[in-house]
UniProtKB/TrEMBL annotation:
Residues 5-59 form the HTH lacI-type domain. Coiled coil: none annotated. Keywords: DNA-binding, Transcription, Transcription regulation. This is LacI family transcriptional regulator. It comes from Kluyvera sichuanensis. Pfam families: LacI (PF00356), Peripla_BP_3 (PF13377).
Length: 337
């Protein structure tokens, strides 16, 4: 039996995203004519079955975000993801609504209220919420989360944690702490594993105290301040910190400034997500960049396409800035062959 060609295969062959391939196949805007024609030519040459594209079934979509996420700290990331979903909805004449959700909420009651034809769920969700979602007859896609039986799209969190930690190692740091929150969240757990793998590859073993997990509460910034206090009170305080996201990294930088600790000379700091505030910080924050809008678009395409691929990983990249690289290091990197 001939292999079924998937949109992922076409994307790999063309060197573009899955969302770009789907837009080309459906004649949607957002691509140059050259890119569109190249994608269509490769799809036809590979024998893609165009009848597998879902059309006309989804008219209303609901975007769910967990109530656990502190709005002030979560929105810089998830609002851009939601805009990606909104872009795709607008291009397909689909109405989108937004709804916070928690374990105390009834999924069936929310569905009855909003009357959606499909759901995009972002961030951590409790097992009982996921169990309710499994019982719905609606298409569901998860963003920044993995769970069995659901199509999911995530940044490559493991690789992000790995390259962030490797970058700190390359700056000569040897006491690299992790500042995070609950590893119940798939993304955070993957970032920790990437961090640990980089340390292992470098032959470094650190005491468990260098990995701080603060409780996942709405007052997360105060919890992060307390976590930083624990790290800085260690007999040998860290000389670098990899924070689970940019908000945590910015809290770490602020706490260092309050204590008169120089960043990056005494403590180098790296975050994750590349929210807008990362570039505005003083010094600017080194971070792992995620194409947040593309995350939303790809989640939408998972709903629209009858594809066997159900676990998409989007590439990430390190953006080195002043929070981890001193002026002399930056000069050395520029002069390196």
């Amino acid at each position: 039996m001939a292999k079924k060609i998937r949109i992922k295969d076409i994307a790999t062959a063309c060197g573009v995203s899955i969302a770009a391939v789907s837009r080309a196949l459906k004649g949607q805007p957002g691509l140059s004519d050259e890119t569109r024609q190249r994608i269509l030519s490769i799809a036809q040459a590979e024998g893609y079955d165009f009848s597998r594209l879902r059309t006309g079934r989804i008219k209303r979509l609901m975007f769910l975000l967990h109530r656990e996420h502190n709005i002030a700290s979560a929105l810089p990331f998830y609002s851009t993801v939601m805009l990606g979903v909104a872009d795709a909805c607008r291009e397909n004449d689909i109405a989108m609504s937004f709804q916070p959700i928690g374990p105390q909420d009834s999924v069936s009651e929310l569905i009855q209220l909003h009357q959606p034809d499909a759901l995009v769920c972002a961030g951590y969700l409790e097992p009982e919420v996921l169990a309710e979602l499994r019982q719905t007859a609606l298409p569901v896609a998860l963003v920044d989360l993995w769970a069995a039986d659901f199509p999911c799209v995530n940044p490559d969190n493991f690789h992000g944690g790995f390259i962030a930690t490797r970058h700190l190692l390359e700056q000569g740091r040897t006491r690299i702490a992790f500042l995070g929150t609950s590893q119940r969240h798939y993304s955070i757990r993957q970032r920790v594993e990437g961090y640990q793998q980089a340390l292992f590859d470098a032959g470094l073993t650190l005491a468990p105290e260098y990995c701080v997990e603060v409780p996942p509460i709405k007052e997360i910034e105060q919890a992060l301040v307390e976590g930083m206090s624990r790290l800085l009170a260690l007999p040998q305080p860290p000389d670098a910190i990899f924070a689970y996201n940019d908000v945590a990294a910015l809290v770490a930088m602020r706490e260092c400034a309050r204590r008169g600790i120089r960043v990056p000379e005494e403590v180098a700091i790296v975050g994750f997500d590349d929210i807008d505030a990362a570039a505005w910080a003083h010094p600017p924050l080194t971070t792992v960049a995620v194409d947040k809008r593309e995350l939303g678009r790809d989640a939408f395409q998972l709903l629209m396409n009858d594809e066997s691929e159900r676990n998409l990983l989007l590439p990430v990249r390190l953006v080195a800035r002043g929070s981890s690289v001193t002026d002399s290091d930056a000069l050395r990197l520029r002069l390196a062959p």
